[in-house]
Write a structure and sequence with these properties.
This protein is of the alpha/beta class. The protein has helices spanning 13-17, 34-42, 78-89, 95-105, 136-142, 146-158, 181-188, 217-227; strands at 69-74, 112-113, 118-119, 127-131, 162-164, 168-170, 192-194, 205-213, 233-241. Strands 1-9-8-4-5 form a 5-stranded parallel beta sheet, sandwiched between helices. It has a two-stranded antiparallel ribbon with strand order 2-3. Strands 6-7 form a two-stranded antiparallel sheet. Helix 4 (95-105) packs across helix 6. The two termini are 30 Å apart.
């Protein structure tokens, strides 16, 4: 994708009356200034969320059985702080610059084949971004669904081959914060089900999207569920990963 760092977020009246300060450098005027956005993009390296090693392709050569994954940064770095403010403090103005970071750093998934583990120049496939569903109670409390908001911004920037698909719905309102990996795996295995109202395009690429890979339990459970439908091209896109 082209290297684009221009800030295209239009200020609201509230922004003009009580302007944000940049989360990176405290510059008044925007929750993320152009220089800090550029810093995140220029220092981006795709790491395996499981072994934490840097990789040059979507499949980690060190982690057998791990699905193709793409990450942007560590959860404890600036991008993680931005997502935290969007998610828990409802700073909606952060959605656009985060989506611009996603658009600039992420490869064009429409040209990727999981069978060959390679990008090619063949005719692009349709890409369906599948946000992991947020618990309804959390959406009501926070006033927004941050993953869906980011997915909408990202697909808008990507163009006609990229779409949002609400293919997954929550089966249980299980909260995983504070759980260890074994409990997360147990909870995640029954947390999602397929949305019966959504048709599946088996020839398309499906991107499972979430803000953070902690233990990977939720994303891997969702991946297994999508795999069971016969979809072949499935990629995990986690914006950040935990250091531990």
């Amino acid at each position: 994708m082209p290297f684009v760092v221009k800030n295209t977020t239009f200020p609201s009246l509230l922004d003009l009356l009580a302007p944000h300060s940049c989360q990176g450098c405290n510059l008044i005027g925007s929750p993320l200034c152009d220089n800090c956005k550029k810093y995140i993009i220029e220092n981006h390296k795709d790491h395996c969320p499981k072994c934490k090693k840097e990789k040059t392709n979507l499949v980690c050569p060190h982690c057998q059985g791990l699905p193709p994954t793409f990450t942007i940064d560590c959860r404890n770095h600036l991008l993680g702080n931005l997502i935290h403010d969007l998610k828990y403090h409802s700073v909606r103005a952060l959605a656009r610059p985060i989506a611009e970071i996603m658009n600039t750093t992420a490869p064009d998934f429409s040209h990727y084949s999981t069978q060959d583990n390679a990008f090619n120049t063949a005719k692009p496939q349709n890409v369906y971004l599948v946000p992991l569903p947020t618990i309804a109670k959390h959406i009501r409390t926070r006033g927004l669904d941050h993953t869906l908001l980011l997915a909408k911004q990202f697909t808008h920037l990507r163009g006609s081959h990229y779409h949002i698909s609400p293919l997954l719905i929550r089966d249980k309102n299980t909260v995983q914060v504070g759980s260890d990996r074994n409990n997360r795996l147990l909870q995640a295995s029954s947390a999602y089900q397929l949305n019966p109202k959504i048709n599946i395009n088996s020839s398309a690429t499906y991107i499972l999207f979430d803000d953070v890979w902690t233990t990977g339990a939720s994303l891997e459970a969702a991946y297994n569920l999508l795999t069971s439908t016969g979809i072949e091209n499935i990629i995990i896109f986690a914006l950040t990963y935990s250091e531990n």
